[in-house]
Amino acid sequence: MKAIPVIRLGTRRSPLAMAQAHETRARLCAAHGWDESAVELVPVVAGGDKVQDRPLADVGGKALWTRELDAWLDEGRIDAAVHSLKDVETIRPEWITLAAILPRADRRDVLLGASSLRSIPQGATLGTSAPRRAAQMKNLRPDIETVLFRGNVATRMAKLQAGEADVTLLAAAGLERLGQESVGTPLPLETWLPAPSQGAIGIECRTKDSVTRGHLDALNDAPTRREVEAERALLEALGGSCHSPVGVLVENADEGLHMRAALFSADGAERVDGTIELTPGDVEAIRAFAADLLARATPGITPLFTGAS
Ligand SMILES: NCc1[nH]cc(CCC(=O)O)c1CC(=O)O
């Protein structure tokens, strides 16, 4: 009998991260006919989990969710790491490979505390720590003030319940993975743009580890990868990060990809929109599109991109 490998799969410890790790294990076992013991889940505490009282953009930003898992991967303590791709920097070290992107879940944001953007009472407060969510809301509803909401999904829902804000926004994908798919109102993609990579789970391993790469390759969803790579290429071309007030949506169309994006000023007063049809992998076209958005951006928007933030 062929020996069954054991893949040590690193994950953050939050309930959402653990749910994503369990999903990854289930998909690996299904794809290869392994039983559960072939994939060992290894929970690791990430830097971003230790800071709960400040916007992440103020904490020093970069690599907040990836640093510890990268170190464990580098030291050979894990073979692969599961991430919400939305939280992973666009530029990764050469020695790490994004070996699989799982089929994308619902990429919409969900509004909790009101049944639509219009029905939020005048002067209500939005609890969020995401610059994109804060700016996009203020763009549509300048009367709304934001208050800082950090912590995992359950913590943020508890803060809403406790009245620390009137409404909040959470990713549909995260709610679904936590069995909370029926709470709140998903916002239509026509009027509300999600973050780059939202709803996509990525699994990384060491570039040199061809055995693990081979195992993970079976999980990769090509249509999701085309979308997500284009979204991440735009974020990179803009000089943005997961803390940048940018919304983007790439969809597979009959021929190629359709991309829609918006940049916001931090206070939401200013906004620049664009759309483009793309051939998958055409990073040059994405760079030109990013340059066009930045050229049309106002002084309120520009400093938040091109690395100046
Ligand atoms: N920033 C935290 C984070 N990172 C990924 C998700 C949700 C899952 C996903 O988008 O794949 C969330 C929670 C949220 O934004 O509500």
Structure write-up:
Monomer. Pathway: Porphyrin-containing compound metabolism; protoporphyrin-IX biosynthesis; coproporphyrinogen-III from 5-aminolevulinate: step 2/4. GO terms for molecular function: hydroxymethylbilane synthase activity. This protein is an alpha/beta fold. It has three domains: about 5-105 and about 200-220, Periplasmic binding protein-like II (D-Maltodextrin-Binding Protein, domain 2, 3-Layer(aba) Sandwich); about 110-185, Periplasmic binding protein-like II (D-Maltodextrin-Binding Protein, domain 2, 3-Layer(aba) Sandwich); about 230-305, Double Stranded RNA Binding Domain. Helix content is about 30%, strand content about 20%. It has helices at about 15-30, 45-50, 65-75, 130-140, 155-160, 170-175, 210-215, 220-240, 285-295, and strands at about 5-10, 40-45, 80-85, 95-100, 110, 125, 145, 165-170, 185, 200-205, 245-250, 255-265, 270-280. The strands form three sheets. Strands 2-1-3-10-4 form a five-stranded mixed beta sheet, sandwiched between helices. Strands 7-6-8-5-9 form a five-stranded mixed beta sheet, sandwiched between helices. A three-stranded antiparallel beta sheet has the order 11-12-13. The structure holds the ligand NCc1[nH]cc(CCC(=O)O)c1CC(=O)O.
